[in-house]
Amino acid sequence: MKAELRGNSQSIPLQNPNHFTTTQSSISGALTGCLSTLDGACIEKLLLHCASALETNDVTLAQQVMWVLNNVASSVGDPNQRLASYFLRALVSRASRVCPTPVNFNTATGGGAGGGPAFHRRLMSVTELAGPKVPPLLNASIEEIGHRLANFAKYRDVPFEFNIVEVGIPQESSSDILHYDLLLRQLNPSQLNLRVDEALVVNCQNWLRYLPDEQMGSSTSSNLISCRDSFLDMVKNLSPRIVTVVDEDCDLGATTGLASRITSCFNYMWIPFDALETFLPKNSPQRIEYEADIGHKIENIIGFEGIQRMERLESFTKLSQRMGDKGFLSVPFCEETVKEVKTLLAEHASGWGMKKDEDNTLILTWKGHNSVYATVWVPHAVETWENSMSN
Amino acid sequence: MNDSTVSGDSSSGNQVAPPKPAAKKKRNLPGMPDPDAEVIALSPKALLATNRFVCEICNKGFQRDQNLQLHRRGHNLPWKLRQRSSKDVKKRVYVCPEPSCVHHDPSRALGDLTGIKKHFCRKHGEKKWKCDKCSKKYAVQSDWKAHSKICGTREYKCDCGTLFSRRDSFITHRAFCDALAEESAKTQTLVAPTSPDEDKNVEAAASPPQSPPPQVSPAPPAPPSRASPAPPPPRASPALPPPAPPSQAPHPQFLLQLLCCPLFCLFRAQPSGNLYELLESTSPNPTTTQIPEETPSITNLTASCGGSSSSSSSNGSSSSNVFASLFASSTSSGSLHSQTTGFTDLFGAIARPTCTPDVPPSSSTEPVSLCLAMSQGSSIFGTAGQERRQYAPAPQPAMSATALLQKAAQMGAAASNGSLLRGLGIVSSSSSSTGPQEWSQQRLEPDGLSLAAGLGLGLACDGGSGLKELMLGTPSVFGPKHPTLDLLGLGMAASSGSTDGLSALMTSINGGLDVSAAPPPFGGGEEFGSKDIRRSL
Are strands A369-379 and A361-366 parallel, antiparallel or unpaired? Predict the structure, then answer.
């Protein structure tokens, strides 16, 4: 653990009351102060500086900050240092894309961005898109998931059938949007073979984040609608009994600016890094792998904008609003479930906790910080009736 | 066990025999260990390692010694090896790995391993544990758990709307909160020669809580009527009116902040228990007739504080720059910025008694510069009031008193500044919610023998270092520790930056505020007023 700075670096002279003006002298003063006793807040500020330098095309400043970050960051250090290293990579990759100048940002980081553990490129396979998202830690195949679900259903005396729906995607699809559009078109009642007496439960686990949220309108439609919204519309049209949404509680959506994304992402990704630090030794290969995975995610979140982004996380407050707008009502979890979850967490290692929000949301917390939320929704009664009438 | 077997005497009172290990365990005072105990210095990694007890046979680690022993049984050791060596019985004390820490010195080692772990995390670690309901953060899980249990459970609500989790801070607040209400209600009766301006102001203050009094100078007449130390019965009170335009005159809020200041307890030691009376009594003209005369100068000052140009502003501009830099946050955090306004409010409050019209011009510029310094872009008392209004569950993270002191230490770069701050008993206040409450809790122990005690803060470790920095005037929060300080900690050598205006100010303040007249819970109060101030010049 590093000593925590209270306030900012103490080496700032009084003549420079505004610590983060863009003058280089104050920056270097700040940075030298930070190097000796770094903490999360310090690193975050450096990252923000770098980002703003990139946005204003101040290449020199960006390089300077990157140099400092490079000295601070380490993929084998404490969680903050590791985070810093991945963020730095993301910023470097962004810089090389964004900045038109032929400056090689890699040199700024001493080639640090080039080396390091290899990232695992996530293949967006079709199976992944169609089925529930596999959490990377589980490393289970989709069939295994099916088996487990079947066992669980048997345990609960629920008749259960597991079918994998494969959606055909043309190989030469150029952008991710087509993926989702195609997918959405194919997810209709006929395709799903819905039987009349079946209750439809839609589980969106770690899924909604992949749906682009950028407003886009076709030439024919007058109102702009995002892919995510149209997906929700489609789900509602299926008249599901309940819709469960489980996702990560962080605002990294399409509309957030780079600076706020860096802040949110840094403070959020700290959670898995800190958890890994608690449970796995520093040089465990598993840990390095997980961290690299997250690093890849960070790189996409920070390094890209708009369409090229893969994940656009949304906090549960925003999602609740969205669901409400789309005509869904939130439903509370039953007490039994809540108790079960609590006992489960209590059995596991300390650090994980649960928070029950008043809006019928269960939130997994790590050391008090929100990590993953779970909510349940039903389509608004009136709308459902309308749908059934029109069908 | 009151029978002593070592000494033959069976007197129940005196146990002459040295304590045996078999008898009651002798407990050393924390931080003052047994001289012949074994001192162990662990690295941070080793200290925080969860598996400290390692089996020597298979190198398996365990969190507890008992578990290790259980495990060792499974190895089927021969009898000889099964016995634990007698060395284990020897008492162990641990030092903190952080070099700048007080407990890094073996003579201040801590005897409990868990204790040193917690200490290290608390003072030198990252605060990872966040409370669900409020935004308080903790480095130690047990602290976090303890807080989570009581967070939001018991809440006392003052009539003005502020919430408290602690009974004592609630009562303290209520005393002054209601007093304020009472004051504004019955101001007419209190002040004999009041200018029409003042009357209007006073009435304005008595008006409904939410309306901002335009030109308020209720503070001068207000405190004397609040002389009763006993908390008056609860009343709906306009505790902290919303921000007023910059030209607003001093406001009762400043007194509230003052009163919440821990060092205010020193002033409180007066029998009347009233700050303003004290200040008046110590100022050159301690009469209430001073007040109406003050008003014009005050409004003049505050006008200048508002940043509007006045003739006096040019005089004080140079010193105001000094103050601006002094009080401006050397850090960029916006919250600190607003903290400085609260801080300068306090300062301005102290400065006010010296703003007498008959003070020679040279010193009159100093208060002006003071006020100018306060024009950090926000209304002096208005925002302070706003800050103060946000008590217990404020959206912004509360800062502990020790953290506040450290912030003050950061801000107080000049040594003379440090002593000035110390002398006036002001530390950087923040806009944090629990700051004043914590202080006001401590306020009830005015008899501090040392400054730390006088502050009444639990400045165990980091607070201590921050305080020392404050006193020494070093900007570094984690600077070298100084085990011994003179009471006032005026190590002038460490001062940085010349502050001519500051020295002059201090003279004027010193002249105005005869601190030596105040009762010395300070311990060395008499000295302070004269000798040490001069040393700084």
Answer: antiparallel
Distance CA A4, CA B124 (A): 6
DSSP code per residue over B66-106: HHHHHHHHTT---HHHHSPPGGGGS-EEEE-S-TTSGGGSG
When scoring B124, B128, B138, B343 by the number of chain A Cβ atoms within 10 A, the one with the most, hence best to mutate, is B128
- The neighbour count for residue B89, using CB atoms within 10 Å, is 8
Task: Check if B62 contacts A (Cβ < 8 Å).
Answer: no
Beta-carbon separation of B478 and A16 below 8 A: no
> What pLDDT is attached to residue B180?
63
Which of B182, B282, B300 lies closest to B232 in space, CA to CA?
B182
Closest-CA residue of B relative to A366 is B129
- Band of pLDDT at residue B85, cut at 50, 70 and 90: low
- For B132, which DSSP code? S
Q: Are B331 and A8 within 8 A, CB to CB? A: yes
Q: Which of A19-33, A136-150, B512-526 has the highest mean pLDDT?
A: A136-150
Residue type for B229, please?
P
Length reported for chain A: 391
Q: Which amino acid is at A216?
A: M
β-pair type (A242-248, B129-130): unpaired
Q: How far apart are CA A274 and CA A296, in angstroms?
A: 17
Enumerate the β-bridge partners of residue A376: A244, A331
Give the mean pLDDT of B64-91: 74
Determine the Cα–Cα distance for residues A214 and A254; give it in Å rounded to an integer: 6
Ranges A28-37, A233-242, B197-206, B432-441, most confident: A233-242
Summary mean pLDDT of chain A: 74
Q: Please count the residues of chain B.
A: 537
Q: What is the pLDDT of residue A154?
A: 87
Per-residue buried b or exposed e for B35-53, using 16+ beta carbons within 10 Å of the residue's own CB: eebeeeebebeebeeeebb
How far lies B331's CA from each of A30, A61, B170, B411, B463, in Å?
10, 20, 32, 8, 19
Tokens of B505: 């100010």
Backbone φ, ψ for residue B215 (5° rounding) = -120, 90
Q: Which of A142-146, A258-262, B342-346 has the highest mean pLDDT?
A: A258-262
Cβ neighbours of B454 (radius 10 Å): 25
**Residues in CB range of B363: below 8 A, 6 or more apart:** B354, B504, B507, B508, B511, B512
Assembly ipTM? 0.73
A-proximal residues of B, 478-497, CB under 8 Å: 478-479, 497
Q: Mark yes or no for CB contact B333/A7 under 8 Å.
A: yes
Helix ranges restricted to H, chain A: 24-36, 40-55, 59-72, 79-98, 105-108, 126-130, 142-155, 176-186, 189-192, 227-237, 258-279, 285-303, 316-325, 335-347, 381-390
Q: CB neighbours (10 Å) of residue A390?
A: 7
Residue B476: closest CA among chain A residues belongs to which residue?
A10
Q: How far apart are CA A165 and CA B45, in angstroms?
A: 50
* Helical spans, DSSP H, in B375-492: 380-389, 401-411, 415-424, 434-442, 451-455, 462-472
Residue type, B423: G
CB-nearest to B330 from A4, A12, A367 is: A12
Partners of A1 on chain B (C-beta within 8 Å) are: 44, 48, 120-121, 124-126
Q: How far apart are CA B431 and CA B433, in angstroms?
A: 6
Q: Determine contact: A17 vs chain B, CB below 8 A.
A: yes
Q: Which of A14, A27, A37 to mutate to test the interface with B (most CBs of B within 10 A)?
A: A14
Tell which residue, A320, A317, A336, has the closest CA to residue A328: A320
Q: Exposed, middle or buried: residue A56 (CB in 10 Å: 0-12, 13-18, 19+)?
A: exposed
- Rounded CA-CA distance B343/B348 in Å is 9
